[in-house]
Design a protein that fits this description.
Tetracycline Repressor, domain 2, homodimer, DNA-binding
DNA sequence: TACATTTATGACTTAAAGTCAATGACTTTA
DNA sequence: TAAAGTCATTGACTTTAAGTCATAAATGTA
């Protein structure tokens, strides 16, 4: 990699880090692009070199963490669906807690306007869908899920659970431990949620 | 009621109706306060007589519909919890469908920033929580729910389901019939969701 | 060394939210 | 019933912040 590209990537990282810190502190709507750029010492125009719109920076926050999670889950070749789903729920909520309420809010908001996302831009939502479809597809191939209901539909059911959890956490002001929630939810509820689709034999 | 107050209420209704029509058509972010006021023929300042901030008008959209629903459910004195919850889910999703994706998005977004709501302003979210707590409290008193887990917690569980449904519907671009979803969800899933909290005897 | 490419800049344009002092229609009261 | 008082309404104005773009600087290439 040449010096120019490397410097550019560092610049982008500086912007994302500044955005993460400031948005976590004050909330998206109370942080201006000027705030972000002056905080990390670049010009306003530089922001718009890397992001088409102010909202787009939110997609990059937490990206490194969730990429790592993805790698980890995909590597769990020997584990079954339940194990993978549990791990994924845990990591999901851990990321939620780590990034904070205000950033989660913005993730959810971005999810609600998927049409407005720039093309070829992997949103957190698309990432989550892909992960869950992958896990479920494996379960179909192994014969654990009947496969009658499309994997896509089941993935959406689960996504609504995960985003529901995240939304609840935001609404509660972050007052409960996501860990507890995952314990109660990922085990009890997910099992219940899936019961009708599990292959009987 | 005197002539002035009546005129004022008509003015407010004109604004809310215009806002509903325009936001349903173009989405909240693509409608300016100027658009709304010029559409219904009042001055911009008039908008700010009735609403502190642009976002606040969204709370009033659908208000008449959901008030009526509330009355209806509260009047179902003879019905049990399951019946009431089913009816409520149906009405909830009917309202969702009636008001449209763009308005639902804004409801969800507003829910995510509860702290920013003006005081003494009943948000759709607060309305939903109150309704569900009421239904569940009755079930506790009748002895149908064990009451070990606080009603508030269960209400939140359900709210996350309802808002999850609404969010999914928005994400899918409104491509499925909420009715089908309620059938699958309100019956199968809600039953499953509540199973561990139902009193055994 | 000279030319090309990529990255960074910040003053500028544009858009829209929100304010407020002035107006006059309606209501009260003496 | 006319003067005093109240309250909904107005729209020009202020303010804030998003997003643009011509230019400059740094790096890479021939």
């Amino acid at each position: 990699m040449n010096k120019r590209r490397q410097a550019a990537e560092e610049t982008k990282k500086k912007i994302v880090d500044a955005a993460e810190k400031l948005i976590a502190e004050k909330g998206f709507d109370n942080v201006s692009v000027d705030d972000i750029t002056s905080f990390c010492g670049v010009a306003k125009g530089t922001f718009y070199v890397y992001f088409k719109r102010k909202e787009d920076v939110v997609q990059d926050i937490g990206y490194a963490y969730f990429s790592a999670v993805g790698e980890e889950i995909l590597a769990m070749k020997e584990s079954g669906m339940a194990e993978k789903l549990r791990r994924y729920s845990e990591k999901f909520m851990h990321g939620v807690q780590r990034c904070g309420i205000r950033i989660c809010r913005q993730w959810i908001k971005n999810v609600l306007d998927p049409a407005d996302l720039p093309e070829n831009y992997p949103s957190k939502y698309e990432f989550d869908v892909a992960m869950l479809e992958n896990i479920l597809q494996d379960a179909v191939e192994v014969g654990q899920l009947s496969g009658e209901t499309p994997v896509e539909t089941l993935a959406h059911l689960l996504i609504s659970q995960l985003y529901g959890m995240m939304t609840c956490w935001c609404m509660s002001g972050g007052t409960f431990e996501p860990k507890d929630w995952v314990g109660r939810f990922a085990d009890e509820q997910t099992e219940r949620l899936f019961a009708p689709y599990i292959k009987k034999n």
